[in-house]
Structures are given as structure tokens and as C-alpha cells.
């Protein structure tokens, strides 16, 4: 009779980390949709509701990156999960990218609510050069959103593969 090798189950912290990356994937997908559908309209109309929606999506994605970073570090520390460590390092980079883009996000928010003096302090006097300077950070943000989606897909596959039958 052949010997059946049991697949090791996911440990609790690693499973929690996988679930949090799944949630982060959903948030990053929704934030990407928000950016592509609302950002252009915000520039044209100055809608406060859409601006608050995009800013809330930005803050939620940033918070989920911090949560995933912490849960990944805990999974590595207590359960020696190397994949959690690698993903946690990626979420560290994503959190830094979010911090780099905070200035632009705040300028859009304050501009929509008519706080022109604060917006001018954030942007400076030359708005065109500020917007051009934000091209690279926002492209990094879009790449980070895509990367969060890919990590979430792999975590979903890991959860499904290790699901108890």
C-alpha cells in the first residue's frame, strides 16, 4: 500500500497573513478602478465627493499595506515563513510608495475643498512642474497596486490549496 504524504497545514499567523493579503488585493483593485474612473473627473469638475472617495481609497490601501507588513513580519517571526517575509518586504516598499504620494493626494484633497493657501504650500507656485514631478511616483503607485493584486492572487491560491477538506 503506498504511503500517503500529508501536506503541512497553514499555521494560524500565516493563514491570517494570507487573508489580509486577500483583503489588500480587493482594496487595491477597487482603488485602481477609482483612480481610472474618477481622477480625470475630479480634475475637470472638482467634485468633493469623488475626491473624498479617491482619498479614502488611498488611505485604505495605505492602511492595508501596513497591516500586511505587520502580519507578514509576525508570520515570519513566530512561524518562520520565508514567503511571508518576502511579501512583507514588498508591502514595506508599497507603504513607502504611498508615503511618497501623500503630498499629491493631500494637494488634490485640499484643492477640492478650496483650501488654496494650503494647496499652494504643498505644491509651490509652479503647478505644472509639480504635476510633472508626480508622474514617476504615481506610476510606481499603479505598479504597486498591480503587485498587491498579484500577491493577493497567490495568497488566494495558497488558501484554496491548503483548505481543509
Runs in which pLDDT lies below 50 for 5 or more consecutive residues are: none
The averaged pLDDT comes out at 88
**What is the helix fraction of residues, given as a range?**
over 70%
Distance between the termini: 22 Å
Number of DSSP strand runs: 0
Q: Determine the structural class based on helices, strands and strand pairing.
A: mainly alpha
Query: What is the overall number of helices?
Result: 7
Overall spatial form: elongated
Radius of gyration of CA atoms, rounded to a whole number:
20 Å
Oligomer category: single chain
* Main beta-sheet annotation: none
Q: What amount of the residues lies in strands?
A: under 5%
Succession of helices and strands: HHHHHHH
Write up what this structure looks like:
The chain is mainly α. The protein is 84% helix and 0% strand. It is built from 7 helices and no strands. The longest helix is centred in the N-terminal third of the chain and has 34 residues.
Summarize the topology:
Elements: H1 12-45, H2 48-79, H3 82-100, H4 102-112, H5 116-123, H6 127-133, H7 135-161
Helix pairs in contact: 1-2, 1-7, 2-3, 2-4, 3-7, 4-5
What are the salient characteristics of this protein?
165 residues; mainly alpha
Short overview:
This protein has seven helices and no strands. It is mainly alpha-helical and 165 residues long. The model has no long low-confidence stretch (mean pLDDT 88).
